[in-house]
Amino acid sequence: MPRPEYPLKVYADLQATSFAEARDCLLAMATAGHLSILEDDASTLTIQSDHGTMGLSASDDGTVTAVATAEDDRWMFIVKNAIVVQLKKQFPEVTENMRWSDAGQGPVLPPTFTLVTVREVYPVGSAFLRVVLEGDDFAAYGRESIHFRLVQPPKGKDPAWPFLAPIGSVKWPEGEEAPHKPVYTARSIDHAAGTLVTDIFLHEGGQTIEWAREVMSGDRSRANIGIMGPLGGGLLEAQNVLLAADETGMPAAARMLENLPQGVTGTLFLESGEGAGCDYPLNVPDGITVKWLARNEGDSLEQAMIKAMATPFEADVWFAGERGQAARVRDFAKNAGWDPKELRISGFWKAPDNP
Ligand SMILES: Cc1cc2nc3c(=O)[nH]c(=O)nc-3n(C[C@H](O)[C@H](O)[C@H](O)COP(=O)(O)OP(=O)(O)OC[C@H]3O[C@@H](n4cnc5c(N)ncnc54)[C@H](O)[C@@H]3O)c2cc1C
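Above: the input record for the complex with flavin-adenine dinucleotide. Below: its predicted structure, written as tokens.
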């Protein structure tokens, strides 16, 4: 595989570790993530990751240096973090003193953090509030990654934001300043207007709903928040799909539907309390059949998927729902003989009674 050249390159010396040990540690990550090895010899290791490389080099005096290259600041942050997280598993004492060559002198916001202001909040259907956020740059929330953390500082406090430590990892405010930061989906982005739309499901006891309702009622003191991302998976490319979502996955499903290729076929199961009555707006391609399930009438997303997946067929599978349900659907699919590469089955939330 030819070695791509990336514009950014940074280094961090690893004290008190041998090249061989650090190499084994990073190679384990490459194997687990099916990443390509670009170079592997007595003094150099280079692993290809998305939009950058992770590696090691050993100099004649025995110094071992971690090396990261990347396309831009955002990806550099992700590549550096991947190296640190992996090394930390085996050499916690080594990573404590690591300092990347691009580390700033004072606290800086992580490149994956964007300050945003709420432009408006309004109901969508009977089960969601739509929050329109304004910010400088939402380009990262394209096809490959559509999720983010909605970073809400505690009520009544001056906001404290995360910052980048010299090691390249993010330090979150702690104690009374710790923000609430659940994961949401970029339902749509308008680059010209500088807005990102996210839809928040109205479930019992949700802190984010309380926050959104306060801003909707005119309390602008909490209208300045942050988003951290992108995170998680992106859009699907497949010609035949089997999709399933409860309310938490509906914004992602809606965005996927709008970006599937021409002529796509398949089925989408959607579960909400009252089924189709939740009126969540969707633009459905002609070849996709939508089957609404009403939880209040005993329907279950998990059971619908298990029935639909009894015998494997050619399709990309995507499931977003409660974590326990996701685990059971994943186990069922594997036992039924589905190819794990075609499965994207995720828990989007955790029921309180689920350990
Ligand atoms: C990749 C990803 C994308 C997501 N996208 C979206 C999205 O676009 N829109 C969206 O609404 N959610 C989305 N979620 C789910 C969301 O992150 C969780 O529901 C989260 O707990 C909401 O935080 P909160 O502040 O409302 O509730 P919290 O204050 O975190 O939790 C309060 C209580 O609510 C319960 N709870 C959380 N979710 C639900 C639920 N769905 N039904 C019933 N009880 C619940 C919790 O168990 C807890 O007891 C996504 C999650 C992931 C992982």
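Notes for the reader.
The mean pLDDT is 93.
The pocket of flavin-adenine dinucleotide is lined by residues 147, 180, 182-185, 198-201, 203-209, 232, 247-248, 251, 348-352 (CB under 6 Å).
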